[in-house]
Task: inverse folding
């Protein structure tokens, strides 16, 4: 595992000066993932926030080979490039050790790109796919996705007299990928940078398909002060809304367990999209959200062999 000094000394694969929003945690996620990937890397990225802010023609912030994909096919594209690389390597035409990373937001991963991601994982390509989950279609105006939390206020699941935000609970994509029996899968957060670093290094060192789901708080979409992005990530983990764990050798393992599990309200109270949950008439919705977090956490503890 690379030391902090080694990580800091590595050349940035994503240059500064791009057009991401102030306090953009998805951009920080990309920096952390790419710094954790030594050597030669080829990346694909679905249409979304990061693609838009880093590749506005004729400029690019990418300092590695980069392929912009449509919303639905980041995983298909990078798996095809990896297959071509393996063919050239067998013929002796390529000798470099190259790593392949596909990126996509929750819209391009949980929803529109799920089919191509499932195919790439099932076929067994030697690649890593990273989802930067900011819990909505932020680039096109904050529409709900299947990653959007229950009762969150979005443009297509608004809070009003008839409905109070999204009616559904978020899809558990990490477990869907684990069901493919992949070489490696994990949940991570840039707020716990060393944990994320270890998981990226491990994912790239293991032969076969790997997946890391990274919660990436979005200041304009979640509506919190720009300086609170890292804190939002920490609170998501400490409330057990976003547990940090990994799947390897057919087993799940917690990589972080809060000393004190905080109530979900400690996370939601800082976000404008949940402001209505802290009004007296909507407290029952916050209670329902808490019950679902508790249920999923208890289930995960069981799967990891941890005491409840």
Result:
């Amino acid at each position: 595992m690379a030391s902090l000094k080694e990580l800091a000394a590595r050349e940035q694969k994503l240059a500064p000066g791009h057009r991401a929003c102030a306090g953009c945690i998805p951009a920080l996620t990309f920096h952390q993932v790419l710094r954790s990937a030594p050597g030669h890397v080829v990346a694909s990225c679905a249409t979304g926030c990061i693609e838009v802010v880093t590749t506005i023609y004729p400029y690019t912030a990418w300092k590695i080979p980069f392929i912009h994909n449509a919303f639905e096919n980041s995983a298909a594209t990078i798996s095809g490039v990896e297959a071509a690389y393996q063919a050239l390597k067998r013929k002796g035409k390529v000798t470099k050790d190259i790593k392949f990373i596909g990126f996509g937001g929750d819209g391009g991963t949980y929803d529109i790109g799920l089919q191509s991601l499932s195919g790439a994982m099932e076929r067994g390509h030697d690649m890593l796919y990273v989802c930067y989950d900011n819990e909505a279609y932020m680039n096109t105006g904050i529409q709900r996705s299947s990653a959007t939390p229950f009762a969150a206020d979005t443009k297509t699941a608004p809070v009003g007299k008839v409905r109070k935000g999204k009616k559904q609970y978020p899809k558990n994509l990490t477990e869907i990928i684990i069901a493919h029996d992949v070489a490696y899968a994990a949940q991570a957060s840039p707020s716990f940078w060393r944990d994320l670093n270890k998981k990226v290094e491990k994912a790239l060192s293991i032969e076969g398909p790997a997946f890391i789901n990274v919660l990436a708080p979005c200041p304009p979409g979640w509506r919190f002060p720009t300086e609170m992005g890292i804190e939002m990530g920490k609170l998501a983990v400490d409330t057990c809304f976003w547990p940090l764990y990994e799947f390897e050798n057919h087993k799940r393992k917690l990589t972080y367990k809060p000393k004190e599990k905080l109530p979900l309200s400690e996370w939601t109270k800082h976000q404008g999209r949940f402001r209505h949950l802290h009004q007296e008439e909507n407290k029952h919705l916050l209670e329902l959200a808490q019950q679902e977090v508790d249920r999923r956490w208890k289930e995960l503890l069981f799967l990891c062999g941890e005491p409840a």
In short: The CA atoms of residues 76 and 119 lie 8 Å apart. Strands lie at 40-46, 66-69, 98-105, 128-133, 184-188, 210-215, 245-248, 251-254.
